[in-house]
Amino acid sequence: MTTKKLHPSIEEFKEFVNKNPQIIDEVRSGKATLQELYEDWYLFGEEDARWDADRAEKNTEKNTSSIKGGDWLTHFLGSMKKMDPNQIQGQLGQLSKALGAIQNVIMQLQGGAAGQGIKVSAQKPNHPFQFRKD
Question: Could you name the domain of life of the organism this protein comes from (predicted)?
Answer without folding.
Answer: Bacteria
